[in-house]
Amino acid sequence: MSVEILQVENVKKHFKIGPNQTVKSVDGISFSIKKGETFGLVGESGSGKSTLGKTIVGLYSATSGRVSFDGHEFGDLDKKTQKKLNREMQMIFQDPHASLNPRMRVEDIIAEGIDAHRLAKGKERQELVYHLLERVGLRPEHAQRFPHEFSGGQRQRIGIARALAVKPKFIVADEPISALDVSIQAQVINLLEDLKHEENLTYLFIAHDLGMVKHISDRIGVMYLGKMMELTTSSQLFEEPLHPYTEALLSAIPLPNPRLAKKRERIILSGDPPSPVNPPSGCRFRTRCPYAMDICAKAEPSWKEVKENHWTACHLYSK
Amino acid sequence: MSHLLKVENLQVSFKTYGGEVQAVRNVSFHVDQGEVVAIVGESGSGKSVTVQTVMGLIPIPPGKIKGGKITFSGKDITNLSKREMRKLKGSEIGMVFQDPMTSLNPTMKIGKQIAEGLIKHQKLSKAEAKQKAIELLKLVGIPNAAERYNQYPHEFSGGMRQRVVIAIALACAPKLLIADEPTTALDVTIQAQILDLMKDLQRRMNTAIILITHDLGVVAEMAQRVIVMYGGIVVETGTVFDIFERPKHPYTWGLLESIPKPDVKEKKRLIPIEGSPPDLFSPPKGCPFAPRCKYAMEICVEKMPGEFKISNEHIAKCWLNDPRAPQVEALIAAGRE
Question: Do B255 and A251 touch (CB under 8 A)?
Answer without folding.
Answer: no
